[in-house]
Amino acid sequence: MxxxxxKLDDNVVKAxxxxxxxxxxxxxxxxxxxxxxxxxxxxxSLVVTFVFLTEQQISDAKAEQQDAYLRKLTHKQLLKAGILxxxxxxxxxxxxEEACHKGHQGDWDKRLALPS
Length: 116
Prior knowledge:
By secondary structure, this protein is of the alpha+beta class. The protein has helices spanning 3-26, 55-63, 66-80, 97-104, 108-112, and strands at residues 30-36, 47-52, 92-96.
């Protein structure tokens, strides 16, 4: 990784670590998050995936508008790191361990390689 890209990715990781810590405390069922990006098309290509244990937990979180909360939290922390998302709905997604096991036998690398 070139030093500029490495620094940018480090900033993303720091911001998302804060998001993860807060989300674990405030959003029931949330387990972990990950991100991927094509840094030649950044920040438009940034994809942040919030992972819950079950599909029902995602549905419950959406019913309680926790999806909007997580998008706002992500947007805020990335902005503090100098990264502006034009529309966080295009960058933040939700998935579950349950769906990964059903669709990809628990292989997250394979699952996350799919287009969102």
